[in-house]
Amino acid sequence: MSGARWNTGDGGVRAPPLSGVGTLYRHFETREALVAEVYRQEVAELCAAPARLLAQYTPDEALRRFLLLLVEHSAVGKGMALESIMATDSPIFDDARAEMARALDELLSAGVAAGAIRSGISGRVLLRALGGICGMRAKG
Fold first, then answer.
1. What pTM, to 2 d.p., does this model score?
2. Residue 104 burial by CB count (10 A; 0-12/13-18/19+): exposed, middle or buried?
């Protein structure tokens, strides 16, 4: 799958053009299916980070580092050819948000247990707040 990620030059990635990559496209019915799979894989890699971060850092530092990874993911995602799947009925974005919220819940729970983070904040709420911040930063 890593061969399906092409650097766009601006920090983003995109799926390769259809011509000349027949082997790759034998496994995917459409270019959109390829882009969706690349995106799913990137989200899975991202959402595996909390366990590694919690093993290396205190819960609050692990959360801080994961939030930075989410911001980076957001910036890179804008460079991907995601527009091609936005027009479909793919549940990919809902699934990705749910995975990211679960990853945040893991970090928040660890922080609460360590007494470093107050309780009552869900991963979904924090993800929405971070999305709003990223959206504001992108506009201005």
1. 0.76
2. buried
